[in-house]
C-alpha cells in the first residue's frame, strides 16, 4: 500500500494541491454505508465516518444496494450512447422527474457532465437569450462577493475575485459586476440596517449596469466553497425583483444546496423564489457518477432557439450518459421515498447540539448550522494536515479549508454517527490549530 502512495505522489496532481509539496494523502481501500476504509500505513486498516459525503454528493452512503442495482441493470442494456440525434429512456425519465421536482416555471433540461459545466451552460444561455432579444451589449453577469461556481473559465469569472480561489486568473477572466456579499445570517430580518444597506447597493449596481448585465448569478441561501456562509431569504427575493425590473435572467446555482441539503428540497424554496435558470449536480446521482443539469423556463428555451444559431451552442460528449441518468433516477426516487425533510431536521438538530460546545473554545469565531451543514469557523486559517489528523484519530474524515472545519454528512448517518462527527471536530479544535 505504501508503494501506491509513492506512485501517486510521483505522478498524480490532487485538487488544489502542490505536486512538489503535496499535503498528506490517505489510501482508500473500501467504502460502505457512511464509512471509508483507509490503509493505516502499518499493514492494517482503519474506518472513518465520511463527514464530507465525498464533497457533499454521497447522500445515500457508499455501496447503496438500490443505486448499485440501477447501474447493473442499465449496463446490461448499454452503458453509453451519444445524445446528438439519439435519446434513451433513462434520459427522458430523468428529465421528466427533474421538471416535476424543480420550481414550476422550469420546463426544459440540458444535461451536463459536471456542476461547473452546468454553470457554463447557464451563462451561455443567458448570453444567447439577451442576444436573441436584441440586447447584444448585455454580456456581463451581476453577482455578489463570496460566491463560488466552479473551476472552469466562465464560472471562475463569477466567483469571488479577491477572496476566492481564482485570484491568480485576474485579468484573464471576463470582468463581471460584483456587489457586496449579503449580510450574514439566515434569520436576519428584511428591516435590518445591514440588509437595507446591502439592498440599496445592489439596486444601485443594477441601475448603473442595466444595459450591460445579462443575468444575476448566485448560490441561493448558502454560499458553499466560498465559506459555508448563510444569508437571508430576503436577499434572494430582492435579486428576483431586480431581475424582473431590469430584464435580467436569474440563475440559481443549487449544485451544493439542491436535493434537501439546507432543509428544503431546493434552497430557493426558503425565499419562495423561482429562477429562470437552475443548475443542479453533486447529489443528483447520489455521488455515483459525475452528472449535472441546467434547467430553464420555456421563455428562455424558446427565445434562445429562435435566436442566432437556432440552438444552444453546447454539446458534451457524455451528455445524458445512460448510466448516470439511471443512477440519478434511482437516487431521486430513493430520496423522495424517504421522509427526507424529517431526516434533515434530525441531522440539523444533532449538529446544533453536538457542535454547540465548540463555540466557547479559544480560537473559534463562529459555530453555525443550516440544514445538514455544520460549521466551526476559526479565527484564522486551519492547519489542514494537523486538523485532518486530529479528527481522523477520532474516527472521522473531514477536509477543512480556509478557516473552516465543517461537515456535510450523508443523510443516512445515524444520531450516534452525527454525535461522533461533532465530538471529533470539537475535540480536534480544542487541541489547538
From TrEMBL:
Substrate binds at residues 55, 148, 282, 315, 399. PROSITE patterns: AA_TRANSFER_CLASS_3. Its EC number is 2.6.1.62. The modification N6-(pyridoxal phosphate)lysine is found at residue 282. Keywords: Aminotransferase, Biotin biosynthesis, Cytoplasm, Pyridoxal phosphate, S-adenosyl-L-methionine, Transferase. The keyword Transferase applies. It catalyses: (8S)-8-amino-7-oxononanoate + S-adenosyl-L-methionine = S-adenosyl-4-methylsulfanyl-2-oxobutanoate + (7R,8S)-7,8-diammoniononanoate. Its cofactor is pyridoxal 5'-phosphate. HAMAP family: BioA. Belongs to the class-III pyridoxal-phosphate-dependent aminotransferase family. BioA subfamily. PANTHER family: ADENOSYLMETHIONINE-8-AMINO-7-OXONONANOATE AMINOTRANSFERASE. This is Adenosylmethionine-8-amino-7-oxononanoate aminotransferase. The lineage of its organism: Bacteria, Bacillati, Actinomycetota, Actinomycetes, Propionibacteriales. The gene is bioA.
Amino acid at each position: 500500500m505504501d508503494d501506491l502512495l509513492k506512485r501517486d505522489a510521483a505522478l498524480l496532481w490532487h485538487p488544489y494541491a502542490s505536486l512538489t509539496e503535496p499535503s498528506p494523502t490517505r489510501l482508500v481501500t473500501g467504502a460502505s454505508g457512511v464509512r471509508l476504509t483507509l490503509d493505516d500505513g502499518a499493514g492494517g486498516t482503519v474506518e472513518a465516518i465520511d463527514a464530507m459525503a465525498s464533497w457533499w454528493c454521497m447522500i445515500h452512503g457508499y455501496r447503496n444496494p438500490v443505486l448499485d442495482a440501477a447501474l447493473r441493470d442499465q449496463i446490461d442494456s448499454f452503458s453509453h450512447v451519444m445524445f446528438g440525434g439519439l435519446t434513451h429512456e433513462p434520459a427522458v425519465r430523468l428529465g421528466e422527474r427533474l421538471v416535476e421536482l424543480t420550481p414550476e416555471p422550469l420546463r426544459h433540461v440540458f444535461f451536463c457532465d459536471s456542476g461547473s459545466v452546468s454553470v457554463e451552460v447557464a451563462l451561455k444561455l443567458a448570453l444567447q437569450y439577451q442576444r436573441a432579444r436584441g440586447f447584444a451589449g448585455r454580456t456581463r453577469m451581476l453577482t455578489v462577493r463570496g460566491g463560488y461556481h466552479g473551476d472552469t473559465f466562465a464560472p471562475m469569472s463569477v466567483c469571488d475575485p479577491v477572496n476566492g480561489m481564482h485570484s491568480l486568473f485576474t485579468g484573464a477572466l471576463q470582468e463581471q459586476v460584483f456587489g457586496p456579499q449579503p449580510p450574514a445570517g439566515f434569520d436576519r430580518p428584511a428591516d435590518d440596517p445591514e440588509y437595507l444597506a446591502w439592498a440599496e447597493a445592489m439596486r444601485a449596481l443594477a441601475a448603473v449596469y442595466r444595459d450591460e448585465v445579462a443575468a444575476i448569478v448566485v448560490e441561493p441561501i448558502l454560499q458553499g466553497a466560498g465559506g459555508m456562509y448563510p444569508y437571508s431569504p430576503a436577499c434572494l427575493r430582492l435579486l428576483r425583483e431586480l431581475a424582473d425590473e431590469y430584464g435580467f435572467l436569474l440563475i440559481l446555482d443549487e449544485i451544493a444546496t439542491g436535493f434537501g441539503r439546507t432543509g428544503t428540497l431546493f434552497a430557493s424554496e426558503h425565499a419562495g423564489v423561482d429562477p429562470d435558470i437552475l443548475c443542479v449536480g453533486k447529489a443528483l446521482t447520489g455521488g455515483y457518477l459525475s452528472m449535472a443539469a441546467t434547467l430553464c423556463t420555456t421563455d428562455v428555451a424558446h427565445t434562445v432557439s429562435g435566436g442566432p444559431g437556432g440552438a444552444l451552442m453546447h454539446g458534451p460528449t457524455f451528455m445524458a450518459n445512460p448510466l448516470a441518468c439511471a443512477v440519478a433516477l434511482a437516487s431521486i426516487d430513493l430520496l423522495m421515498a424517504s421522509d427526507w425533510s424529517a431526516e434533515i431536521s434530525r441531522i440539523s438538530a444533532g449538529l446544533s447540539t453536538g457542535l454547540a460546545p465548540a463555540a466557547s473554545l479559544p480560537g473559534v469565531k463562529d459555530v453555525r448550522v443550516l440544514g445538514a451543514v455544520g460549521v466551526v469557523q476559526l479565527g484564522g486559517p486551519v492547519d489542514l494536515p494537523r486538523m485532518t489528523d486530529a479528527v481522523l484519530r477520532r474516527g472521522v474524515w473531514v477536509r477543512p479549508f480556509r478557516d473552516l472545519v465543517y461537515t456535510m454528512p450523508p443523510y443516512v448517518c445515524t444520531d450516534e454517527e452525527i454525535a461522533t462527527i461533532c465530538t471529533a471536530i470539537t475535540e480536534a479544535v480544542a487541541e489547538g490549530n
